Amino acid sequence: MKLSQLPLVLLLISNIYSQHTEETPKPTVTIKPAQHVFRGDTVTLRCDIHAEGVTSWKYIWNKDGLVFSELWEHTFSSVTESDAGKYFCYGEEREGSRTSHRSDEVTLTVSDEAEAFLSVSPQKWLTKGDPVTLICEINSSSTGWTFSWFTDTGSSDNSNRHNLLSDSSRGAGGNYTVSSAALNHTGVYVCVAKRGEPAYDTYSNTQLILVTGVSPPVSLIVRPNRTQHFRSDSLSLSCEDQSNSTGWRVKGYTERWGLEDCSSVWGSQTGSTCTIRDTITYDTGVYWCESESGEKYHPVNITVHCESVSVFIHFTKPPFYVLYLNSQDCDLHSISHTILFVNDNDSATLLNL
Predict the structure, then answer these.
(1) At a CB cut-off of 8 Å and minimum separation 6, what does 227 contact?
(2) Could you read off the pLDDT of 62-84 as tens digits, one per residue?
(3) What gap in Å lies between CA 301 and CA 119, rounded to an integer?
(4) Would you say 146 and 127 are in contact if contact means Cβ atoms under 8 Å apart?
(5) Which range scores top for mean pLDDT: 1-5, 101-105, 269-273, 336-340?
(6) Centroid of chain to Cα 110
(7) Side by side, which strands form the sheet with 308-315?
(8) Is the pTM of the predicted complex or chain greater than 0.70?
(9) Which of helix, strand or coil describes residue 41?
């Protein structure tokens, strides 16, 4: 090679190297905490562009065809449904002429506020030594949640309402398991799901777990002793043991009132007997006997139905019989039905309703 040709060869090599190093970069978009979020979440979009020789990029964010930001990271402090859509970004060199490709589109989905749902498996009423698992789930397939576990004290003071379990971290993945239930595991439980930074959290419904001994020293006796109870009934719940001790209290848990003493909301306590004089559907729940030291025994499930039916039969001259039905629905509306039967050769036929 002649010496005079060397500069030309070096120039060609330089151009090839320059074209290689100035290859147009493609940005990468990340969304935190996830692409599927809930109303009120804090969401951050980030546009990363890697290119040699470029020290500063101007970032252009596009949502559904419109430019809305020029930041490397764009944060929605509290997303709403209007923030949902398709996003992409690209970059322009601030002190140069280079422009990146546009990124792939990412879709942000915003749902209603997240809800945590707490359930119990295999059952809520346990005998000492039984296994039990509390399961906390979010109402979607979204990921990235951690869970904490509390007992509900029933206190009206919200600052003291929930006690964090000492081993709450065991259930961070959503399941809190007790392999052998003890009497002190009796209580009302709630889980709290958290995600993101700053954290977005949501409280679950409550679940009551009752653990009793194999041979409970006391029984909760319900009078009248029947399987169905209706609104406006009078109920007597008595804690009875062999020694006729008066150191027992009737306590209960209902969806309406939560964890309460008999006398605080739904009845009156005399000795070891609780009286509910005028039942309502909100009295449906679980009731048990509790000792002065806090031990709980003999849970009983009571359901109060809101509709009662009265039946009256009026005998007219044969072959006609009239049946009157009167029922009362949950809103205290009376509904009457009149049914006329005719009896012909020992068979009844419906004529009118």
Answers:
(1) none
(2) 998 899 999 999 999 889 999 99
(3) 18
(4) no
(5) 101-105
(6) 18
(7) 308-315, 320-328, 334-344, 347-352
(8) no
(9) coil
